[in-house]
Design brief:
53 residues; mainly alpha
Length: 53
């Protein structure tokens, strides 16, 4: 089960990163800055919630 879970997380991360890069390529510079700020906040919130770091 653990191996499948880890591979699912890796696959989801790759898909998410690809979608994010595609979306960022279509944004204006102002939208990119806002997106990055929100993304950092969300990432650190998730990591804090999971207790990883």
């Amino acid at each position: 089960m653990r191996n499948g879970f880890v591979s699912g997380i890796v696959t989801g991360s790759i898909i998410g990163a690809t979608a994010g890069m595609y979306a960022a390529s279509k944004m204006t510079p102002r939208q990119k800055r806002r997106f990055m700020r929100q993304g950092k906040k969300m990432l650190f919130g998730m990591l804090d919630g999971m207790g990883m770091f």
